[in-house]
Amino acid sequence: MTQLTTNQTPDIPEEKAAGPWREAWTGFKKSKAALAGAFIVLFFVALAIVGPLIAPEGINDQDVTERLMAPSSAHWFGTDDFGRDILSRVIHGARISLTVGFFSVIGSVVVGSALGIIAGYYGRWVDTIISRLFDIMLAFPSILLAIAIVSVLGPSLRNALIAIAVINVPNFGRLIRSKVLSIKQDEYIMAAKGIGMKDARILFSHILPNSMAPVIVQGTLAVATAILEAAALGFLGLGAQAPAPEWGKMLADARNYLRDAPWTMIFPGLAIMLTVLGFNLMGDGLRDALDPRMKN
């Protein structure tokens, strides 16, 4: 029998030697749909960052002599009923929609994860109270609950962001609660308790890091939902207020010109559709890459 010398190491396949996140990235790159979604998302993120620098006109530059002009070389997306350049407003609207999407989901993840970890780890009456709270919130259609919250707080973009964050808390709370319930019975968690490790350290050092994969997937998909909900609130006049170039508000302002000037609705609608499609494709790719059951 031959033995390994000190300079020799056993051959380990590269895929097995790689860490879980590197394996997930390798799996993500294999999906063309996921890469297409990531490209769309990166495009709109870049648009939101550099948009004010590349927009051909200001968002409120008006010229009533050019109102409702069809797309042309002077105005690629045409103009609205005030003679404002629709391309410039769509570009600026990317920053508003993505801001609402990202920050509302961050708020939902933070609050929902905290409540879900507490409910799943401590159980008993704590779990009962938090779970019933989630059930009550989920009993209402999400958009109706968002409308109710904004009606109480007052119509504004900030209040719409708060409402969207609140209605998504139960989704993340229940997701991470179920993950914690399965993880807390593992041997390494029981060993940590046995050596006297404090609950806070167990939660933040062991349970939370091992519960993040489904949260990342759900968070990506939730950004798409949040953008749709922000557009719906804006369309109803409960989100961004004039003259902010929020895509849902632009659709609401253009609905009276659907027959005479359809481009006033087409381009904001396409922006919403493409952004939501990008996040959905990327979320599906992340789910396939991070879910062990999807691996061969």
TrEMBL record:
Transmembrane region(s): 33-55, 96-121, 133-154, 221-242, 262-283
UniProt key word Ribosomal protein: no
UniProt keywords, alphabetically: Cell membrane, Membrane, Transmembrane, Transmembrane helix, Transport
Coiled-coil annotated spans: none
Membrane topology type: Multi-pass membrane protein
Cross-referenced Pfam families: BPD_transp_1, OppC_N
Record InterPro entries: BP-dependent_transpt_permease, MetI-like, MetI-like_sf, OppC_N
Boundaries of every ABC transmembrane type-1 domain copy: 94-283
Cellular location(s): Cell membrane
PROSITE patterns: ABC_TM1 (PS50928)
Top-rank lineage group of the source organism: Bacteria
Family according to the record: Belongs to the binding-protein-dependent transport system permease family.
Protein name (Swiss-Prot/TrEMBL): Peptide/nickel transport system permease protein
Source organism (scientific name): Bhargavaea ullalensis
Lineage: Bacteria, Bacillati, Bacillota, Bacilli, Bacillales
